[in-house]
Amino acid sequence: MLGALFATSTVQAEVEQNCRFVAIKAEREACYQRQEAALAEKRKQAAARDAAMTSSSPEQMNADDAALRATLRSICRGC
Questions:
Q1: pLDDT per position as a tens digit, 34-48
Q2: Cβ(43)–Cβ(8) below 8 Å
Q3: Considering Cα of 66, then 72, then 75, then 77, what sign does the dihedral take?
Q4: How far is Cα 14 from Cα 6, in angstroms, rounded to an integer?
Q5: How many domains does the chain have?
Q6: Which of 33, 37, 57, 78 has the fewest CB atoms found within 10 Å of its own CB?
Q7: Distance in angstroms (rounded) separating the CA atoms of residues 57 and 63
């Protein structure tokens, strides 16, 4: 979680750096809006990826363990 916070702050700093030096105000505001939309999309993808990694239920893990045990038992008879 701390890594995600650090990455977000780093990306946000890069966003500000890219748009800060645009001279025309309308273009600068458009730049900030584009960058914010891209940042929001990256955050959404990271949240979805984190949720997918932690979504394994104990029942699913038990089923996977049982399948692995059965496979190993068929390979190593008497081990």
A1: 999 999 999 999 988
A2: yes
A3: negative
A4: 12
A5: 1
A6: 78
A7: 10
Structure tokens at 31: 């730049």
Beta carbons of 49 and 14 less than 8 angstroms apart:
no
Structure tokens at 73: 């038992």
Of 20, 24, 40, nearest to 32 by C-alpha is: 20
Report yes or no on whether pTM surpasses 0.70.
no
What's the token pair of residue 36? Answer: 């914010």
Q: Which two tokens stand for residue 48?
A: 């979805």
C-alpha span between 37 and 39 (Å, rounded): 5
Give the domain range for residue 34.
2-75
Instruction: Reply yes or no on whether the pLDDT at 66 is more than 80.
Output: yes
